[in-house]
Amino acid sequence: MLTFLKKIFTWWNRETIGTRIKTILQGKLIGKDDQGNKYYENKKGNRWVIYANEIEASKIPVEWYSWMHHMPNKIEKKHNLEKYDWQKPHQPNLTGTDKAYYPNKNEDAVKKKYKSWKN
What we know:
By secondary structure, this protein is an alpha+beta fold.
């Protein structure tokens, strides 16, 4: 019951009931990315994404970013790009998480690199 109420009233738990109804009635599934996000479009040209897990805009990979923002480019119709060996998989913004990048993490980041002019 609580899960049902969350789907009705909250947008941060995947999609709301309104989005689900719109997707069922008007949405045409265009494709899926590696993370499980599903991309839809209707006849008017509106585009939206149903996220697989947590809703975070930075989870949209580069192959789908231009499609979502109606920016034509060479990969518009080809969403499954061949990845090179040197390319890393797409990651969402990790700021504020345990996996966030901190320069000089092992050293004291609070060290003063200057002398104050007042003592």
